[in-house]
Specification:
By secondary structure, this protein is α+β, with helices and mostly antiparallel strands. The protein contains seven helices and four strands; from the N terminus they run ααβαβαβααβα. Helix 4 packs parallel to helix 7. The radius of gyration is 16 Å and the shape is globular. The mean pLDDT is 87.
Amino acid sequence: MQRVVQRYSSQDIKCTQQEGKGKGDAVRKGFGMATGDILMILDADMTVPPEDLPKFFEAIASGKGEYINGTRLVYPMEKEAMRPLNLIGNKFFSVAFSWLLNQRIKDTLCGTKVLTRENYQRLIANRTYFGDFDPFGDFDLIFGSAKLNLKFVEIPIRYRARTYGETNISRFKHGWLLLKMTVFALNKIKFV
């Protein structure tokens, strides 16, 4: 990112280091600094190529959807892109969220997500409803967007093996946390 900022110094590109931990903290910091009307998340591990982002932009700019979520579970993945246990977990959360939100969502944990600044501001205003304990940011955005009745659209991406960095995900520890967040949302959505 620092090389990109230097190379395109005539553009308004911001780069910062988060003080907190986790992707959710990084997303909140980045979205807080952003000045554009459309907010996008692209994981830094390069498992989704930046060249895929125009499809996401077109979907939101054309009004096809208001919350655009990538899905890694349509096309075949590169070998080593996702461990088998992670794939099983992703499929479980897909079924659970589809039932919970009364709409089909194929991949809750894909890092590529897009929404407008306006809808994100509305989501922030309602964040206390589901709590502010999602270290990943994925459930925060999905639950918040569902609560706002945003139109969901999923865009299939070709998920590749990580080319940068190492995963910070602990399958069992974080899987348990994701399950607890799902049960918490269940009580807020289905049993209200």
